[in-house]
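ugh ok so i messed up the first submission bc i forgot one of the chains. this is the corrected input, ALL of the components this time, i swear. 429 residues overall. if the numbers dont match what u have on ur side tell me asap before i send this to the collaborators (the ones from the other lab, u know who)
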Amino acid sequence: MIAKIVEGKPKSSLALYWTIVNVAKIPFTLFYIVRLIFFIAAFLLIMSKPHSFTEIKLLFQQVKEHLITMNFLNDALTLTSQLAIPAILLIVCFLAIFFIVRQKAYRYSITNQGFAVKDTFGLNNKDVTFSCIADVSIKQNILEKILGIMSLYISVIEPKKSMFLHRKYYKNKGIIRLQGLSPKTAEEILDTVSSRVSITKVENPAKQVLYEF
Amino acid sequence: MNSNTDEKILLVASPNPKTAIFWTAMQTLRLFTVPLGMVIHLAFIIIFCSVVFSMQMNLKTLLTPTLNAIYNYPIPGFEKYAAEILDITCTILILLISFFYVWFKRRRSSHEYCITNQRCIIKNGLWSYEKIAAPINRIESAYIQQDISERIFGLNSVYIIMRGASVLNTRNQRVEFSTSTTSNNQIYSKKIRLYGLTREKAEEILKIINQNNCET
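and heres the new structure output, hopefully the right one now
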Protein backbone atom coordinates (compact mmCIF):
# COMPACT_ATOMS: atom_id res chain seq x y z
CA MET A 1 0.00 0.00 0.00
CA ILE A 2 1.56 3.30 -1.12
CA ALA A 3 0.94 6.29 1.11
CA LYS A 4 2.28 9.77 0.45
CA ILE A 5 4.32 11.33 3.24
CA VAL A 6 5.53 14.57 1.66
CA GLU A 7 4.76 16.21 -1.67
CA GLY A 8 5.98 19.58 -2.85
CA LYS A 9 7.34 22.04 -5.37
CA PRO A 10 10.65 23.91 -5.39
CA LYS A 11 10.95 27.62 -4.59
CA SER A 12 10.39 30.07 -7.45
CA SER A 13 13.99 31.35 -7.14
CA LEU A 14 15.10 28.02 -8.66
CA ALA A 15 14.24 29.41 -12.14
CA LEU A 16 16.55 32.38 -11.46
CA TYR A 17 19.29 30.01 -10.25
CA TRP A 18 19.06 27.87 -13.40
CA THR A 19 19.09 30.98 -15.61
CA ILE A 20 22.19 32.45 -13.90
CA VAL A 21 24.03 29.12 -14.03
CA ASN A 22 23.26 28.59 -17.73
CA VAL A 23 24.02 32.19 -18.75
CA ALA A 24 27.38 31.86 -16.97
CA LYS A 25 28.10 28.84 -19.17
CA ILE A 26 27.85 30.90 -22.41
CA PRO A 27 31.41 32.42 -22.25
CA PHE A 28 32.83 28.96 -21.53
CA THR A 29 30.98 27.54 -24.54
CA LEU A 30 32.39 30.34 -26.72
CA PHE A 31 35.83 29.65 -25.30
CA TYR A 32 35.52 25.94 -26.22
CA ILE A 33 34.43 26.88 -29.75
CA VAL A 34 37.41 29.25 -30.16
CA ARG A 35 39.73 26.58 -28.77
CA LEU A 36 38.33 24.03 -31.21
CA ILE A 37 38.93 26.41 -34.13
CA PHE A 38 42.50 26.99 -32.88
CA PHE A 39 43.15 23.24 -32.68
CA ILE A 40 41.76 22.66 -36.17
CA ALA A 41 44.00 25.49 -37.50
CA ALA A 42 47.03 24.01 -35.71
CA PHE A 43 46.21 20.55 -37.09
CA LEU A 44 45.94 21.93 -40.63
CA LEU A 45 49.25 23.76 -40.16
CA ILE A 46 51.00 20.57 -39.05
CA MET A 47 49.42 18.62 -41.92
CA SER A 48 50.77 21.16 -44.43
CA LYS A 49 54.30 20.08 -43.29
CA PRO A 50 56.18 23.43 -43.20
CA HIS A 51 59.99 23.06 -43.47
CA SER A 52 60.95 26.36 -41.82
CA PHE A 53 59.63 29.34 -39.86
CA THR A 54 59.71 31.50 -42.98
CA GLU A 55 57.40 29.03 -44.63
CA ILE A 56 54.95 29.29 -41.66
CA LYS A 57 55.19 33.10 -41.79
CA LEU A 58 54.46 33.00 -45.51
CA LEU A 59 51.45 30.79 -44.91
CA PHE A 60 50.04 33.20 -42.30
CA GLN A 61 50.69 36.12 -44.64
CA GLN A 62 48.78 34.35 -47.40
CA VAL A 63 45.82 33.61 -45.10
CA LYS A 64 45.79 37.24 -43.87
CA GLU A 65 45.88 38.63 -47.39
CA HIS A 66 43.15 36.25 -48.45
CA LEU A 67 40.90 37.35 -45.56
CA ILE A 68 41.56 41.06 -46.25
CA THR A 69 40.82 40.73 -49.96
CA MET A 70 37.56 38.98 -49.10
CA ASN A 71 36.83 41.78 -46.59
CA PHE A 72 35.66 38.93 -44.41
CA LEU A 73 37.12 40.05 -41.09
CA ASN A 74 35.71 43.58 -41.21
CA ASP A 75 32.25 42.36 -42.11
CA ALA A 76 32.32 39.68 -39.41
CA LEU A 77 33.44 42.15 -36.73
CA THR A 78 30.79 44.75 -37.69
CA LEU A 79 28.05 42.13 -37.72
CA THR A 80 29.18 40.69 -34.38
CA SER A 81 29.26 44.11 -32.67
CA GLN A 82 25.77 44.92 -33.97
CA LEU A 83 24.20 41.58 -33.15
CA ALA A 84 26.02 40.64 -29.93
CA ILE A 85 23.85 42.48 -27.39
CA PRO A 86 20.43 41.61 -28.94
CA ALA A 87 21.53 38.00 -29.36
CA ILE A 88 22.65 37.72 -25.72
CA LEU A 89 19.41 39.34 -24.52
CA LEU A 90 17.39 36.96 -26.67
CA ILE A 91 19.23 33.94 -25.31
CA VAL A 92 18.79 35.15 -21.70
CA CYS A 93 15.05 35.76 -22.24
CA PHE A 94 14.60 32.35 -23.86
CA LEU A 95 16.48 30.64 -21.02
CA ALA A 96 14.51 32.56 -18.36
CA ILE A 97 11.13 31.61 -19.91
CA PHE A 98 12.22 27.99 -20.38
CA PHE A 99 13.39 27.69 -16.78
CA ILE A 100 10.27 29.38 -15.35
CA VAL A 101 8.11 26.83 -17.19
CA ARG A 102 10.43 24.01 -16.11
CA GLN A 103 10.31 25.17 -12.47
CA LYS A 104 6.49 25.20 -12.58
CA ALA A 105 6.48 21.58 -13.78
CA TYR A 106 9.09 20.42 -11.23
CA ARG A 107 7.63 18.20 -8.48
CA TYR A 108 8.89 15.79 -5.85
CA SER A 109 7.11 13.29 -3.68
CA ILE A 110 8.06 10.95 -0.83
CA THR A 111 5.92 7.94 -0.09
CA ASN A 112 6.28 5.15 2.47
CA GLN A 113 8.11 3.11 -0.21
CA GLY A 114 10.31 5.57 -2.04
CA PHE A 115 11.12 8.89 -3.53
CA ALA A 116 10.25 10.44 -6.90
CA VAL A 117 11.21 13.58 -8.84
CA LYS A 118 9.29 14.84 -11.87
CA ASP A 119 11.37 17.15 -14.02
CA THR A 120 11.54 18.69 -17.51
CA PHE A 121 7.88 18.22 -18.43
CA GLY A 122 7.89 14.56 -17.46
CA LEU A 123 10.80 13.65 -19.75
CA ASN A 124 13.35 13.36 -16.97
CA ASN A 125 11.40 11.60 -14.22
CA LYS A 126 13.37 9.76 -11.60
CA ASP A 127 12.08 7.48 -8.89
CA VAL A 128 13.74 5.15 -6.45
CA THR A 129 12.67 2.93 -3.58
CA PHE A 130 14.27 3.27 -0.14
CA SER A 131 15.95 -0.12 -0.47
CA CYS A 132 17.99 1.21 -3.43
CA ILE A 133 19.21 4.39 -1.71
CA ALA A 134 22.78 4.41 -0.41
CA ASP A 135 22.92 7.77 1.33
CA VAL A 136 21.41 11.22 1.32
CA SER A 137 23.09 14.61 1.50
CA ILE A 138 22.19 18.26 1.21
CA LYS A 139 24.43 20.88 -0.32
CA GLN A 140 24.28 24.61 -0.75
CA ASN A 141 26.76 26.53 -2.87
CA ILE A 142 27.35 30.28 -2.62
CA LEU A 143 24.81 31.21 -5.32
CA GLU A 144 22.20 28.95 -3.73
CA LYS A 145 22.98 30.57 -0.38
CA ILE A 146 22.33 34.03 -1.86
CA LEU A 147 19.02 32.86 -3.34
CA GLY A 148 18.05 30.97 -0.16
CA ILE A 149 17.70 27.53 -1.72
CA MET A 150 19.32 24.13 -1.19
CA SER A 151 19.86 20.92 -3.15
CA LEU A 152 19.24 17.39 -1.93
CA TYR A 153 21.33 14.56 -3.38
CA ILE A 154 20.21 10.95 -3.23
CA SER A 155 22.83 8.32 -4.09
CA VAL A 156 21.49 5.13 -5.60
CA ILE A 157 23.03 1.73 -4.86
CA GLU A 158 24.70 0.03 -7.81
CA PRO A 159 22.92 -2.99 -9.22
CA LYS A 160 24.68 -6.29 -8.59
CA LYS A 161 25.47 -7.40 -12.14
CA SER A 162 26.26 -4.41 -14.29
CA MET A 163 25.69 -0.72 -13.85
CA PHE A 164 25.00 -0.35 -17.55
CA LEU A 165 21.98 -2.67 -17.40
CA HIS A 166 20.02 -0.18 -15.36
CA ARG A 167 20.23 3.06 -17.26
CA LYS A 168 17.41 4.59 -15.25
CA TYR A 169 19.55 4.78 -12.14
CA TYR A 170 22.65 5.99 -13.94
CA LYS A 171 21.12 8.64 -16.14
CA ASN A 172 22.73 11.22 -13.90
CA LYS A 173 25.71 9.17 -12.67
CA GLY A 174 23.74 7.43 -9.93
CA ILE A 175 22.67 10.65 -8.24
CA ILE A 176 19.16 12.01 -7.98
CA ARG A 177 19.30 15.75 -7.38
CA LEU A 178 16.38 17.63 -5.97
CA GLN A 179 16.88 21.36 -6.38
CA GLY A 180 15.33 24.57 -5.09
CA LEU A 181 14.30 23.51 -1.61
CA SER A 182 14.15 25.89 1.30
CA PRO A 183 16.79 25.01 3.96
CA LYS A 184 14.10 23.92 6.43
CA THR A 185 12.36 21.65 3.91
CA ALA A 186 15.72 20.19 2.79
CA GLU A 187 16.64 19.29 6.39
CA GLU A 188 13.21 17.73 6.92
CA ILE A 189 13.41 15.63 3.74
CA LEU A 190 16.98 14.56 4.62
CA ASP A 191 15.82 13.35 8.01
CA THR A 192 12.71 11.64 6.63
CA VAL A 193 14.51 9.85 3.79
CA SER A 194 17.62 8.86 5.75
CA SER A 195 15.59 7.54 8.68
CA ARG A 196 13.47 5.49 6.26
CA VAL A 197 16.60 4.21 4.52
CA SER A 198 18.26 3.26 7.82
CA ILE A 199 15.40 0.88 8.67
CA THR A 200 15.10 -0.60 5.16
CA LYS A 201 17.18 -3.55 4.03
CA VAL A 202 19.16 -3.45 0.78
CA GLU A 203 17.66 -5.39 -2.09
CA ASN A 204 18.63 -5.93 -5.69
CA PRO A 205 17.39 -2.85 -7.58
CA ALA A 206 16.42 -5.05 -10.52
CA LYS A 207 13.72 -6.68 -8.41
CA GLN A 208 12.16 -3.42 -7.29
CA VAL A 209 8.78 -2.41 -8.61
CA LEU A 210 8.84 1.33 -9.18
CA TYR A 211 5.73 3.27 -8.43
CA GLU A 212 3.87 6.00 -10.24
CA PHE A 213 3.62 9.60 -9.14
CA MET B 1 17.76 15.30 14.67
CA ASN B 2 15.72 12.43 13.39
CA SER B 3 12.04 12.14 14.16
CA ASN B 4 12.56 8.41 14.67
CA THR B 5 12.47 7.83 18.43
CA ASP B 6 14.68 4.71 18.25
CA GLU B 7 17.63 6.78 17.13
CA LYS B 8 20.19 7.66 19.82
CA ILE B 9 23.20 9.92 19.53
CA LEU B 10 26.27 7.90 20.45
CA LEU B 11 29.07 10.33 19.68
CA VAL B 12 29.53 13.94 18.59
CA ALA B 13 32.99 14.95 17.39
CA SER B 14 34.75 17.68 15.49
CA PRO B 15 38.26 17.90 14.03
CA ASN B 16 41.13 18.46 16.46
CA PRO B 17 42.37 22.13 16.77
CA LYS B 18 45.65 20.95 15.22
CA THR B 19 43.74 20.31 11.98
CA ALA B 20 43.77 24.04 11.18
CA ILE B 21 47.58 24.07 11.40
CA PHE B 22 47.76 20.84 9.37
CA TRP B 23 45.56 22.25 6.58
CA THR B 24 47.56 25.53 6.60
CA ALA B 25 50.82 23.61 6.24
CA MET B 26 49.41 21.51 3.40
CA GLN B 27 48.02 24.56 1.58
CA THR B 28 51.35 26.43 1.94
CA LEU B 29 53.16 23.40 0.59
CA ARG B 30 50.73 23.41 -2.34
CA LEU B 31 51.73 27.01 -3.08
CA PHE B 32 55.15 25.69 -4.07
CA THR B 33 54.19 22.32 -5.54
CA VAL B 34 51.47 23.60 -7.91
CA PRO B 35 53.77 26.09 -9.77
CA LEU B 36 56.43 23.36 -9.82
CA GLY B 37 53.94 21.01 -11.44
CA MET B 38 53.03 23.69 -13.97
CA VAL B 39 56.72 24.23 -14.79
CA ILE B 40 57.18 20.47 -15.27
CA HIS B 41 54.12 20.36 -17.56
CA LEU B 42 55.40 23.33 -19.55
CA ALA B 43 58.81 21.68 -19.85
CA PHE B 44 57.17 18.54 -21.23
CA ILE B 45 55.20 20.58 -23.78
CA ILE B 46 58.37 22.42 -24.86
CA ILE B 47 60.31 19.14 -25.16
CA PHE B 48 57.46 17.58 -27.16
CA CYS B 49 57.22 20.58 -29.49
CA SER B 50 61.03 20.63 -29.89
CA VAL B 51 61.04 16.95 -30.82
CA VAL B 52 58.22 17.45 -33.33
CA PHE B 53 59.89 20.50 -34.91
CA SER B 54 63.38 18.98 -34.83
CA MET B 55 62.09 16.25 -37.13
CA GLN B 56 61.65 18.90 -39.78
CA MET B 57 64.33 21.49 -38.95
CA ASN B 58 67.64 21.71 -37.16
CA LEU B 59 67.14 21.86 -33.34
CA LYS B 60 70.42 23.73 -32.82
CA THR B 61 69.41 26.64 -35.05
CA LEU B 62 66.07 26.80 -33.23
CA LEU B 63 67.43 26.90 -29.67
CA THR B 64 70.75 28.81 -30.00
CA PRO B 65 69.26 32.34 -30.45
CA THR B 66 66.87 31.83 -27.49
CA LEU B 67 69.58 30.53 -25.15
CA ASN B 68 71.96 33.34 -26.20
CA ALA B 69 69.26 35.92 -25.46
CA ILE B 70 68.73 34.47 -21.95
CA TYR B 71 72.45 34.47 -21.09
CA ASN B 72 73.37 37.84 -22.59
CA TYR B 73 70.39 39.91 -21.48
CA PRO B 74 69.34 39.27 -17.84
CA ILE B 75 66.14 40.85 -16.46
CA PRO B 76 66.83 44.66 -16.23
CA GLY B 77 67.07 46.06 -12.67
CA PHE B 78 66.83 42.63 -11.00
CA GLU B 79 70.16 42.97 -9.11
CA LYS B 80 69.30 46.51 -8.01
CA TYR B 81 65.87 45.62 -6.58
CA ALA B 82 66.64 42.06 -5.44
CA ALA B 83 66.32 42.94 -1.72
CA GLU B 84 62.99 44.70 -2.24
CA ILE B 85 61.63 41.81 -4.31
CA LEU B 86 62.64 39.37 -1.55
CA ASP B 87 60.95 41.57 1.10
CA ILE B 88 57.71 41.80 -0.88
CA THR B 89 57.71 38.02 -1.54
CA CYS B 90 58.21 37.25 2.17
CA THR B 91 55.46 39.71 3.20
CA ILE B 92 53.00 38.21 0.69
CA LEU B 93 53.90 34.71 1.90
CA ILE B 94 53.37 35.64 5.58
CA LEU B 95 50.05 37.32 4.73
CA LEU B 96 48.92 34.29 2.74
CA ILE B 97 49.85 31.88 5.55
CA SER B 98 47.97 34.06 8.08
CA PHE B 99 44.94 34.16 5.77
CA PHE B 100 45.07 30.37 5.33
CA TYR B 101 45.30 29.86 9.09
CA VAL B 102 42.28 32.08 9.82
CA TRP B 103 40.33 30.47 6.99
CA PHE B 104 41.11 26.90 8.03
CA LYS B 105 40.46 27.68 11.69
CA ARG B 106 36.93 28.77 10.76
CA ARG B 107 36.57 25.84 8.35
CA ARG B 108 37.56 23.43 11.12
CA SER B 109 34.91 24.85 13.43
CA SER B 110 32.29 24.33 10.72
CA HIS B 111 33.03 20.57 10.59
CA GLU B 112 30.88 18.40 12.81
CA TYR B 113 30.51 14.62 12.98
CA CYS B 114 27.55 13.00 14.69
CA ILE B 115 27.29 9.23 14.99
CA THR B 116 24.00 7.70 16.03
CA ASN B 117 22.95 4.05 16.22
CA GLN B 118 21.36 4.42 12.75
CA ARG B 119 23.28 7.09 10.83
CA CYS B 120 26.58 8.93 10.44
CA ILE B 121 25.88 12.62 9.98
CA ILE B 122 28.65 14.87 8.66
CA LYS B 123 28.24 18.65 8.50
CA ASN B 124 30.71 21.06 6.99
CA GLY B 125 31.00 24.24 4.97
CA LEU B 126 32.26 27.72 5.59
CA TRP B 127 30.77 29.62 2.66
CA SER B 128 28.90 26.72 1.15
CA TYR B 129 27.07 24.15 3.29
CA GLU B 130 27.02 20.38 3.13
CA LYS B 131 25.36 17.75 5.29
CA ILE B 132 25.70 14.03 4.59
CA ALA B 133 23.48 11.45 6.24
CA ALA B 134 24.94 7.99 5.74
CA PRO B 135 22.75 5.20 7.12
CA ILE B 136 24.90 2.69 9.02
CA ASN B 137 23.23 -0.32 7.34
CA ARG B 138 24.47 1.03 3.96
CA ILE B 139 28.13 1.16 5.04
CA GLU B 140 30.28 -1.48 3.41
CA SER B 141 33.39 -0.96 5.50
CA ALA B 142 35.21 1.62 7.57
CA TYR B 143 38.88 2.04 8.42
CA ILE B 144 41.41 4.44 9.93
CA GLN B 145 44.24 5.80 7.81
CA GLN B 146 47.13 8.06 8.73
CA ASP B 147 49.57 9.31 6.10
CA ILE B 148 53.01 10.78 6.86
CA SER B 149 51.85 14.39 7.03
CA GLU B 150 48.99 13.45 9.37
CA ARG B 151 51.41 11.42 11.52
CA ILE B 152 53.59 14.52 12.04
CA PHE B 153 50.58 16.37 13.47
CA GLY B 154 49.21 13.34 15.34
CA LEU B 155 45.96 13.25 13.37
CA ASN B 156 43.94 10.40 11.88
CA SER B 157 41.23 10.07 9.24
CA VAL B 158 38.33 7.67 9.32
CA TYR B 159 37.24 6.49 5.87
CA ILE B 160 33.71 5.17 5.43
CA ILE B 161 33.07 3.19 2.25
CA MET B 162 29.44 3.25 1.18
CA ARG B 163 27.65 0.62 -0.84
CA GLY B 164 26.63 2.18 -4.08
CA ALA B 165 27.75 4.06 -7.12
CA SER B 166 27.33 7.69 -6.27
CA VAL B 167 29.60 9.93 -8.28
CA LEU B 168 29.26 13.12 -6.29
CA ASN B 169 32.70 14.58 -5.72
CA THR B 170 32.80 17.00 -2.83
CA ARG B 171 35.29 17.82 -0.11
CA ASN B 172 34.28 14.98 2.16
CA GLN B 173 33.15 12.56 -0.51
CA ARG B 174 35.58 11.00 -2.94
CA VAL B 175 34.85 8.43 -5.55
CA GLU B 176 37.17 5.83 -6.92
CA PHE B 177 36.95 2.94 -9.31
CA SER B 178 37.68 -0.23 -7.41
CA THR B 179 36.71 -3.85 -6.98
CA SER B 180 33.86 -4.19 -4.57
CA THR B 181 34.26 -6.60 -1.68
CA THR B 182 30.70 -7.83 -2.16
CA SER B 183 30.77 -8.52 -5.89
CA ASN B 184 33.28 -9.66 -8.46
CA ASN B 185 32.56 -6.72 -10.74
CA GLN B 186 34.36 -3.40 -10.77
CA ILE B 187 32.17 -0.64 -9.42
CA TYR B 188 32.45 2.94 -8.24
CA SER B 189 32.73 2.99 -4.49
CA LYS B 190 32.25 6.12 -2.48
CA LYS B 191 34.50 7.10 0.37
CA ILE B 192 33.41 9.52 3.05
CA ARG B 193 36.34 10.96 4.98
CA LEU B 194 36.24 12.22 8.54
CA TYR B 195 39.24 14.52 8.93
CA GLY B 196 41.51 15.49 11.81
CA LEU B 197 40.62 13.04 14.54
CA THR B 198 42.76 11.90 17.42
CA ARG B 199 43.55 8.18 17.54
CA GLU B 200 41.15 7.63 20.48
CA LYS B 201 38.24 9.38 18.74
CA ALA B 202 38.92 7.58 15.46
CA GLU B 203 39.00 4.19 17.22
CA GLU B 204 35.77 5.04 19.03
CA ILE B 205 34.00 6.04 15.79
CA LEU B 206 35.20 2.87 14.09
CA LYS B 207 34.01 0.74 17.00
CA ILE B 208 30.54 2.36 17.01
CA ILE B 209 30.15 1.97 13.24
CA ASN B 210 31.25 -1.67 13.23
CA GLN B 211 29.12 -2.55 16.24
CA ASN B 212 25.96 -0.97 14.83
CA ASN B 213 26.64 -2.25 11.31
CA CYS B 214 26.80 -5.83 12.67
CA GLU B 215 23.54 -5.33 14.55
CA THR B 216 21.69 -4.06 11.46
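quick check: Residues 136 and 194 of chain A are 6 Å apart (CA to CA). that seems consistent at least. Chain A has a mean pLDDT of 78.
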